[in-house]
Structure formats: C-alpha cells, structure tokens
Design brief:
The structure is a homodimer of 318-residue chains. A five-stranded mixed β-sheet of chain A has the order 3-2-1-4-8. The first copy, chain A, has a five-stranded mixed β-sheet with strand order 11-10-9-12-13, sandwiched between helices. The radius of gyration of chain A is 20 Å and the shape is globular. Chain A has two domains: 126 residues, Nucleotidyltransferase, domain 5; 169 residues, 2-Layer Sandwich (Nucleotidyltransferase, domain 5), CATH 3.30.420.40. Chain A is built from nine helices and 13 strands. The two termini of chain A are 21 Å apart. In chain A, strand 10 and strand 11 form a beta hairpin. The first copy, chain A, has 318 residues and is of the alpha/beta class. At the A-B interface, helix 7 of A face helix 7 of B.
C-alpha cells in the first residue's frame, strides 16, 4: 500500500504532508511561504512536493486543497485570490505530468467539509453544512453522503449570499454578502467605522485590528467589541437559518478563526438562527458545533480527496 | 402494465388523473373543491381517487403532490397550510391501506421540479433549480440527477430565505422572506400600500388586487404597476444569484402565475441576477426559462413520483 500526499495552498503558506495509507497522523509535514520574490508559487509548490516525496514507498495519490474558484472535475484553478497569474491553471495536469501520480484538486472549504464529514465533527451525518469564517467565508455541503459540487464545481459559495441589501462591498465586488459583514476583516472594519463615528472603546487608536483582538476585548467587557461579535453572530445565524431551509441538514459545523471568539459570538449566532428559522423542525435535532480539525481541515480534506482519487477511477468526490 | 394515478392537493381544488404506463396524456382527470362543509378534505380526497379508479386495468402506484411540510420518506404531511387538522397526517399509510396500492407523497414544488426535469423545460440538465412564484413561493432542486430532499425532506424552501432584513411579515411568521416580498399577494400588498401612501395609479380604488391585474396595468403603462413588477423581479433575481452561488446549476426554471407577468417582471429579474452574481461563470451558459408544464406541474410531478414508487423498492426520489 502506498502513502498519500496532501497539499494545502493558503494565502500565506503552502503545506504538504505525507500520510500512511491508513492513518490521519502524518509521517511528515513541511510548510513554506506561498510567495517569495525569488520564485513563482507554482515552482515553489512543485519543489515542496519534491522535498517531501518519500524514497521508501510509492505515492498512491496527491490531493490538493486550493482557495478560490476551482473546477474539481477538470482539476483546473479558474481563479485564485491573491496568487497572481493563477487563472485557468490546469494544476492537476501539471502535477500529474511532473509526478506521474494521480492528482485530485478541490476548493479548500469544500474539502474541509469533506474532511470534517469523514474524519471530524460531522462523522455519521448524511446531510451537513460546513461554514468556515476567517479572512473570507467559505462553505461545503454534504447531501446524502455526497459533496455538493454543482455543474462546474462552483457550488456552495456560502459566504457569497446577500444578508444585507446595499451592505458593505465584498471582496468579490458585490454588496452585502455574508463575507462582507461577518468575516474577520469585516468585523474589524465595522469596529473601526464605529470608533471613527465616535463610539467609545478600549480598541480606540489600536492599529491592525483583528477579530482575535476584538474577541479578547469583548471578553474583557468592551461594549463595542461585544456589539461587534453579536452583530456578526446575528448575520451568520440568519444565513444559517436560510441554509437550514435550503438543505435541511442534521449538522452545521463552524470552522475558521472567527468562530474561536467564544460564546459572545456563538450565543447571538444560535439565537439568530432560531429566530430566523421557520420551524423547530429545522433545528430541534440539529448539531451546531465547531469544527474538529482546526487548521488542519484543508490538509485532512485534501487527504480525503487523495484517498478517493487513488482508489476510484473517476473523480467522485464523496 | 398498470396505469398510474397522480393526485395534486391544492388550496382550492383537489385533482386526480389516470395516466397510461407510458404516456403523459391522462386518460381521465377529475377535480373537486378542496373544502366543502359537508365532508372532510381527507374523505373528499379518498372519494376522488375512488371515483377515477379504473375498472379495466390495475393501478401500479399512486403519486400525491401536497403543499406544505411533507416527510416524503415516511409519507407524512407534517403541516399543510390552509387545511385544518392535517398535521402529522400519515397520508401514505392511510391511502395504501385503503387502496392496497403503493403510494408516494411529496411536496408539490419539489415534485414540480422533478416533473420539469424529467418531462418539461429541464430535460437533459443534471443540476437545476425550479422556483414557483404564485400565492406562495416554493422550490425544488435537482443535483446530479437527484432531487434534493434533506434529512427529513424539508429542504429547498426557496421562498423562505431572507431577502430584505426586517421586511414584510411572511406567511410562515418570519420577516423579509422572498415569499413576503415577491409572491402574488406580496406584490399586491405593496401596490396597495403605495396607493395608500399617495402614489397615483390606475389601480387606485380597485379591490382585490392580484398580480395578474397588476401585470395588465403594467402592460398598459401604469407606472406604479411597472415599479411593482420591477421590484419583485429585482428581489427574485437577487435570490436566484444566491442560489447560483449555492448550487451552480445549468438551468433555472420559473413557474407559477406571477412569472406570467411578462418582460416587465422578467427583464428586471434577469438584470438583478446578473448584477448580484459573483462572476459570469455562474450565468454565462445558464438556461433561465419559464416552466413548460404550467398548471399541470404538480400533477405531472406526482406522476413522476408514482413511476418511481411503482418501480423501485425504496423511495429514491430521482
């Protein structure tokens, strides 16, 4: 039995790991910065895989998690935020040619959903929603034990649904999306805006605000910080209620750094979900929980994909 | 080969039809009012089926489309709007006992989606969204040639997603849902409200406004009526853009009376969809069209379900 290589392409770092064929404990994990003036990201990615390539056993498959719009059927990165030149990049073809090994590529949030379903907080659920809330907001949905991909694999952009008409501008260029209202940077922007409009807060004058700093201030009783988390929780809860009406899942799993903000986020989130849901039928037996795989969700999801690519003739995701 | 019986339970009428095993042309269709002081709706439904029961051939299966929250796995009507006493009604069990024939039951909008996919405007599409806009707004989604049902069959309540925060009260009791903003009654309410606030319109003083009357006035150039259709189209288009991000389908099929309003609704709808979509990847090859089955969608969907019930051991919907 060969080993599997899982790769997680992030905005700041590239990670690659070797996993035994029957384990979630990697034999080796390597990480390097995504960007460096001396070489292209693609060259860096190929070198990273080469660096960890085992000499003692065969590699059965490589799974790659990447941010942005991915065509998982074709293994093409359509557009990747923050990595210049990665448009319509046939990464699967490139890596298969270079390493002579089957490769599977998927959107990182989709693969995190797959990872949580197979190995994490969603085990045993047949219908689940995964939502990751950090710098951006991404999602993945399991329906009847299958990952929802859609026609070209562009489905479950759960951060890009309108929750506030004419709301703040989203990174995607549209207005009022969940990501523009409740991601880490969106929470920080709102706090900065309130301070600039005269709100009092211990955060006044603090530069480079993050949701982590805001969560800390909230925990210390800062009213504006508490309001900021409640506001984000309220919008996330509203979006989740909509997703319950759309998918009728048994589990909603929340990942990403913002979710680490604790009960000052989670309690308003849960209350808003209940307030906006049509009927208790949608949430009375629902598992609403935080992700189990943490920062490793993308990597473990890429591993779950590698297992599929290595053992199935077609790219059947789940 | 036996025949199939399809039943469509509507708010105003019950319809039942007999279909040959290989045709969409019914041998017989009967309809009676849903409500009558002299007998219960369940009694009326059973008599209706008895009335059309054929004497010359066997019945292979009965398919039933019903409005409201249905558990299609168990064949239980959880709650049906406007029909008193139909709560947790085990209709499949009741009908199977009475008629000694396999019965399948589904939500009417879900089954209309199935009907449009199998026999109507969605033929050949593997990923489609069906949205019916009339007195209420319902939906159905086909993913990878399967109807999306969710854990208990309560999925794809596409009319019950928030499109306007703190918007008008929805029939479900929540605020700002698409149904509360863009259904026929919602369009009429908005026009009435504008008139009561001093807007001028040929519709002033008209009682019992409907979306059909408003569409007629719009066609004759009435500014308020034109605004009303554009407003509804705008919200429907916004919701569709969200659904494109969620499902990445190749077809969006629009049914229901409100969609008959013509280009004064459809053009703003399409423009809003394009305006709110993240990228042309979501709509450049999209088929956005009106339903092919018209008023018969529920009945034909019930027929599609009856075919499944009659030929498969389990209730695999699509």
């Amino acid at each position: 039995m060969g080993v599997f290589i899982a790769v997680d392409i992030g905005g700041t770092q590239l990670r690659a790991a070797i996993y035994p064929h029957d384990s979630l404990i990697p034999r080796l994990v390597e990480r390097i910065p995504t960007k460096d003036p001396s070489s292209s990201t693609l060259d860096r990615l190929e070198s990273l895989i080469e660096t960890i390539w085992p000499t003692d056993v065969a590699v059965s498959a490589i799974g790659v998690a990447a941010p942005g719009a991915i065509d998982p059927y074709q293994g093409v990165l359509l557009s990747v935020a923050n990595i210049q030149g990665w448009e319509n990049l046939p990464l699967r073809q490139i890596l298969e040619k270079r390493f002579q090994t089957p490769v599977g590529i998927g959107n990182d949030a989709n693969l995190a959903a797959l990872g949580e379903w197979q190995y994490g907080a969603g085990q045993g659920h047949h219908h689940l929603i995964y939502l990751t809330i950090s710098t951006g907001i991404g999602g993945g949905v399991i329906i009847n034990d299958h990952l929802l991909l859609g026609h070209r694999g562009l489905a479950t952009e759960l951060g890009h649904v309108v929750v506030m008409q004419d709301g703040p501008l989203c990174t995607c260029g549209k207005r009022g999306h969940l990501e523009a209202v409740a991601s880490g940077p969106a929470i920080a922007s709102w706090v900065e805006q309130q301070i600039s409009q005269g709100a009092t807060s211990n955060l006044s004058g603090q530069r480079h605000l993050t949701s982590r700093i805001i969560a800390k201030a909230a925990g210390e009783g800062d009213t504006l910080a508490i309001q900021a988390l409640a506001r984000a929780g309220n919008y996330i809860g509203q979006a989740i209620a909509n997703f319950l009406h759309i998918f009728n899942p048994t589990a909603v799993i929340l990942g990403g750094g913002v979710i680490q903000s604790g009960p000052l986020l989670m309690e308003p989130l849960r209350a808003s979900m209940v307030e906006h849901a049509m009927s208790p039928d949608y949430y009375s037996d629902l598992l609403l929980t935080t992700a189990a795989l943490g920062d490793d969700a993308g990597l473990v999801g890429a591993l779950a994909l590698a297992h599929r690519v290595g053992t199935k003739p077609t790219l059947d995701f789940a």
